[in-house]
Specification:
single chain; 222 residues; eight-stranded antiparallel barrel
């Protein structure tokens, strides 16, 4: 066996000397051989992103029409726990003018956020405006819950007073009258079924009442 190996080594040396090209000619041969081997090209792995949560379309800041000095803004976000549920905050604003064009006199917020858990989808009939006939629409159903909470008030019409029952918010209406609300008034937890419907940049929220869905609020996206 050793003789065979020695013969092969000598033969290759002679071949290289005879070519006079040295290593350069050999590299060309190797290059040709490699290019002809046709190694299979592995296609890139395409990772399909997961579909967005069912309620993702409702994320954003929403504002309703003015309702005689008052309107309630709605801020909607996805919960950070990956559940696909929504987390919502409401901001009540009271103005000195009936059309809500003047400065805000006071705001009303809650200490806790509302959670809306997906509950499937369904077709319902709903009057989207008071003077329109009922429309057939498909809503995303939710189960909403608000933990026990307090209400906070802030703004130029609000002061804090200490009464016998403890600290209170005092809200002046601008005409000499005022309302006192206890700062320690803990409101009960609330829950209920409802849903959402989008029409362009309009958001309609509905709630279940007596076995049927009725219009709750109408917002426009900001």
């Amino acid at each position: 066996m050793k003789k065979v190996l020695a013969l092969l080594i000598v033969s290759s040396t002679v071949a290289l000397t005879g070519c006079g090209g040295g290593s350069g000619g050999n590299n060309g041969a190797n290059s040709t051989a490699n290019s002809g081997s046709g190694d299979a090209v592995v296609p890139p792995v395409v990772v399909t992103p997961p579909p967005p949560p069912a309620l993702a379309a409702y994320i954003g800041n929403w504002q309703p029409a003015c309702n005689s000095h008052f309107r309630q803004r709605l801020v909607v976000a996805l919960k950070s726990d990956g559940s696909g549920a929504l987390e919502m905050s409401t901001y009540g604003e009271t103005f000195g003018t009936p059309d809500c064009s003047g400065p805000v006199q006071f705001t009303e917020t809650t200490s806790e956020k509302i959670t809306a858990v997906p509950d499937g989808a369904g077709n319902i009939q709903l009057k989207l405006t008071a003077d329109s006939p009922a429309s057939d629409i498909r809503i995303d159903k939710v189960v909403s819950s608000l933990p026990a909470h307090t209400v906070q008030f802030a703004g130029p019409a609000v002061t804090t007073v200490m009464l016998a029952a403890g600290p209170h918010w005092r809200i002046n209406d601008g005409s000499g009258n005022y309302t006192d609300i206890s700062k320690n008034d803990l409101k009960k937890a609330e829950s209920g079924k409802g849903g959402f419907y989008l029409r362009g940049n309009e958001l309609f929220t509905v709630m279940e009442k007596d076995g049927a869905y009725v219009l709750d609020m109408h917002y426009v996206k900001q």
